[in-house]
Amino acid sequence: MAKKKVAAIIKIQIPAGKATPAPPVGTALGPHGVGIMDFVKQYNAATESQVGTIIPVEITVFEDRTFTFILKTPPAPVLLRQKAGLAKGSSTAGKTVAGTVTEADIEEVAKIKMPDLNAYDLEAAKQQIRGTARSMGLKINA
Fold it and tell me: By three-state DSSP, how is residue 135 classified?
């Protein structure tokens, strides 16, 4: 069997279990001729256990208009905001503190994000998450 030729790779972030044919899904998949409702049904079924979280997805569209998709881990800022109990980070990150997270929270987020980070070990992943927290205006308590 010959391999299918890839026509496009599309990356979008959609709330888990709540994808609809409206933008951003429809506008991303429409030009490639993919069955939008087929994707929406499959995505919602795959993410129904994580409703309320934003889940990035990488969709590979083939020339015959079929597709496959890979679910990624939620973005680090989303996870950090959940840990800190905030709606959003600080608009002036270096000057005002929006909230606090503990070192245990940083480690937990790093463990969740580890498959998608380009870090060799947990300590390097924690450093990346600490940087994200600082840029959001979060204070890290030991």
Answer: helix
Q: How far is CA 52 from the centre of its chain?
A: 12
- The 10 Å CB-count burial string (b at 16+, else e) for 77-93 is bebbbebbebeebbeee
Q: Are 139 and 96 in contact (CB under 8 A)?
A: no
Pick left, alpha or beta for residue 61 (phi over 0 → left; psi -120 to 50 → alpha; otherwise beta): beta
The helix/strand/coil state of 3 is coil
What is the CB neighbour count within 10 angstroms for residue 109?
27
The pTM is what? 0.72
> 32-59 pLDDT, tens per residue?
888 888 888 888 888 888 777 888 888 8
Tokens 């994000």 identify what position?
113
